[in-house]
Automatic annotation (TrEMBL):
Source species of the chain: Eumeta variegata (Bagworm moth)
UniProt name for this protein: Focadhesin
Record gene name: Focad
Biological process, per Gene Ontology: regulation of post-transcriptional gene silencing
Domain (DUF3730): residue spans on this chain: 462-686
Amino acid sequence: MEEIEYKLKTNNSVLVVNAVEKLISNIQSKFKPLEKQKFVLENEDLRFLKEKCSSKETVVSLTACQGLLTLVEIGVLEIARTMSTMITLLPTAQNYSAIISTMGGLLVLDLKSRLIPGQQYSCQFSLKNPQHPFITVLEKNTNAVEDVFAQIHALCTSPDYTISSNSLELFRAVFLWMTCSPQHSDINSSRLWQLLLSLNQNKNQEQLLLECLSWQMTWNQKLLIRAFSAYSAVTDAMIYQQKKEYVIALVPILARISNELIKNGLDPRACYNLIERCFALEAPELKMVAGLAVLLLSENLSISPAVYLHELFNLLALSSFVALSLQWLQFPSCLTANALKVASKIIEVYQMNDACDTKLLIANLQANKIFQALIETDSHLSIVFRVCRNWERIREDPEKIQMWLESIDKVDMNLKLELFPFLFGLVLEKNYDEMFEEVWIKALKMALQLVDDKKELTVQLLPVLLYKIANDFSPKLKLECLRAVPLMAKSKENVPSALAILNKLKIGKAVPASFLIMLFSTLADVQVRCYPYLQELLVDCTMGRPELDFKWEVELAKAIAIKNICETQSASHGRELVPAVSSILNQCNDAAGALACGTALGALAALWRLHVVSPPSTWRALEPKLGRDRRVPVQIGLCNLLNEVPGLRVQSPEYDKFLTETAGRLWSYISDSSHPEVIEAACEALSKYKLDDYRLKDIPEVYRKTVKLPSSYCKTPADAARRPEDVLDYIPCEIWPEVFKYTNQAALEGVRKFASTLMSREIRGYRSGIYQPESRGEPTNLSYLSTSSVVRGIFDYVKRQATNPSFDCSDSTLLEMMRCLTADYPRPLPPGDLCFLHDLYHRGAHMHSQCILLAARQALTAGSAKRFLENYLGAINPEVIEESLIMTLFQLLPDLSRTVAPNTLRQPIEKCLEHAYSKIMTSKAKDVPESQVKELLFIKQLEYIKQTLELEKTHDANRTLLSQIIEKYMPLINCDNVAWSTYVTTCCCLAAPYLERMTSPSSWWEVSAELLRKACCIRAELARQGVSDTPLVWLNEIIDAAVGCVEEHSFVLREIAKAVCTARRDDVTRDWLLQLMARAQVVFTECEDTAGKDFICEVFVLSVIAASGHASLEPGGIEDLVSSSQLRYAALPAALAALVGHWGQCAPQIVEWLRHTRALRDINAKVRRACHRSLLALRHCSYLASANVWVRVLNDKQDFN
């Protein structure tokens, strides 16, 4: 041993080799195979050899390590134990090269020992357990990366085919760790990429290359730089090798990376140059990716510093690109001179090219396997690709485009903001066909919605609007763009431009003066500091074009603008506008100026409400002139103005006089006007007044001519000779029937609303004693009420007309009085004998519903009303009576259900429903025109039952009755029946116990396809309507039951997806999705049927897409996704990324569920691949990017590509 130590200390390579050889000989001679484990632990020579592996001397450590490797080759040591020994030596190792070299040799020996003829080699080492030795080395010491790379390079390029052909599998984990690890972005992996790209191109090389590219992360600067270096190396190699499929696939990815580079403050020009080199490749196929790439590059324009513009503009052009480049052309600068020259050329090309490209280029990208492998790794790229692909498919069909845009318009604002370059590009589309006009206007309105949510976008939209105004051929679209210009002032940077445009229109008189005022008014609303410009227009009496602009039109526009300011900014500018209001009221004296005057009075009302001017003094100034004005709009405006008077009440003699005078003016309009709209406006205003606000003499004589002094006021002949209006200090009840009789009969509806308001106020003030009359029976009339009672006056008059009809009251007048009595008041009318209803009922069909309704409202306080109802309901026979009488019953059902006993209601309702259903029992929904469906009697009856069930005032007993009747029809109506959809919405109003009994599969003897469909429809509708705090829970039992019903999977999926689409993206929906994932785990464990497992996965996939709003990106929406598994699996990653971005706290559950599902062997391979792609799309979330999670996700070596 001393000799060996001496030779090792000499550091002479020959002597060191000789010493190690002697050690190996000694070990081999003492080795006993049967005592192998004991020998390895106790042999002194072996222990000495291991110690020398950590020697400071390079020659000694290398040779000692080689000696251990020799002992493995001759069978003295095991590969695994020796590898463990090498790893344990790492903390004390002085020479990592020796350790790494030995590990490489051991890996080769392990590889050869595991090869089985006819089977593919699978490396036992991974990222985590068991961890690859080289990764362990690098985690201990990242400075050893060159030694590790040297070993990898040597083995990957080994002349031994067995080693080189399996080297990528052997080092898969190391490649992934060195190129993708988010915790070790400082490791230089460029040489590893060069090695990977230089190897023989086969399936294994391509898979590893794509896997390493897919897991590149860009959520911080270091990772972004590494990702760009990776893509740059691959792109350079593919351009050199003329691999068009790769180049085409990489262009959109590079466009996305350029956007991330700018966002992170890095120079994107190298990326732009790389994209240019790609397009310089002679490949016509590059056309298919050009549009997508430029749409992505256009997103850079709004965030790109000026210094990078020249390279960006040098790339390509598209309408979206042009739309977003106009903002730079609007503000030229010496800093962007060169770039804007190129941009101008792009605009020229765009303007000269009127041809509409009808080629389906982007659709061809679906055949590019490399692109399909990479696209879903970036959720935004996936979204933009789908939008462009769908646009190509439907761009020739304006109807489909319109429907598609309306669908997108309903999605979450975050998703719409991702599409803003596309929407701006649509606004600039050059298809001038009239059929497309509404499409471009819809796109403009959607763009304006984005501006409302994110005002920074106004800087980009304003130049687009100006370009359309200058160059478009559609007057309608130009008009919409002009209207939108003032809205762009939300961003202060746009105020000078917007003002310059409007001032130019003003000076050039290029638009009607009224339209110009409207534009300035909108501008003042958006930016308060622009108000002086509007004020200048409002006081300008000379504006407009004398030969084209009508004076009344200009004055009306001014009045509308003034009214708008008075309603929104009266505190700051209201007092300044009083002269302008006065000017309009004084100058607009002709018939044409009536609308302007009426609108100006509306502005004055706003000033009154905010106490800018005094109402009494204003009235004194207005009344002499406007009080005699006979123009209808002015009279209506005056009534609306006086509508404000009661609400501004103050305690003062002046204001009391003001109330009396204005009330008298309104009464005069009611009695004297021949225009129903004026009378209705006066009645509405007068209904706000109290009866004490005016006296009997203020009411026109035509209404008070029947009033006589009560006997208590006529104790002497002199007293009896007095006029009632001079004596009475209240309004007698007799006048109210006269108001109905002697007011313009075309305005009776307004009179009825006026009287109903007074009656409601009166009834609300009744005390409980009113409903307990002293007499035993029902009072014959309401004389026990006050002589000023409006209720008494109308009730007693109606009763007299029913029992002793006179010819001075028409049926229409009497009908309006009945409607007044049957209005929905907070309490019933006071008790009174209603036997007169029999006489009134037989006066004609027009009286039927009101008689029944009055009886229903009074059934609890009047026995005569109850008897009338019982007689009426008992006589109903649907086989004999007319359909109109049946409909009267159901129209009044909401009121009947409050007061009538269920035993009385049951028979007529059941009979009528059975009779109506028998007529449509065999009618299919597809056979009946949609316009006729709502006219079917049975459907009308269901609608009224639904209304009744929705009312809180419906008596519980009658609610139970109607629920039982509806439940009875569940097995009778088929899903394809014309009444099924109406029946479903009616069922949604039932209480939970009935719904559970009808639709819960757990309560059925067996789950049939028909029952499952019916239950699914009802529960999906419940979820859509959100009838509970957790609406989507209604779907759970259906999902569980449908797992075993394969033939109904498509139907159930469609209904569930529609329900989830309407769900709010809130915590309740998030919790339901997490519960759905848990239910899926149960199915995976307990269900043996593969179809059932696939179904629960499909439910999850569609639910995620629906909840995220991404279903709207397809022209056919949910229908497209249900009918195509390829579409929904492709949409899942981006949709899931959107939800995780919104619900960051649920990322751990989602990531772990995807990992678990991806690893299952007995589910559809498409589902597993979609889960893998979703994990790629989620790689930027903080949870997945953490060290332990990232390693676990990549540890699985299955082929998902």
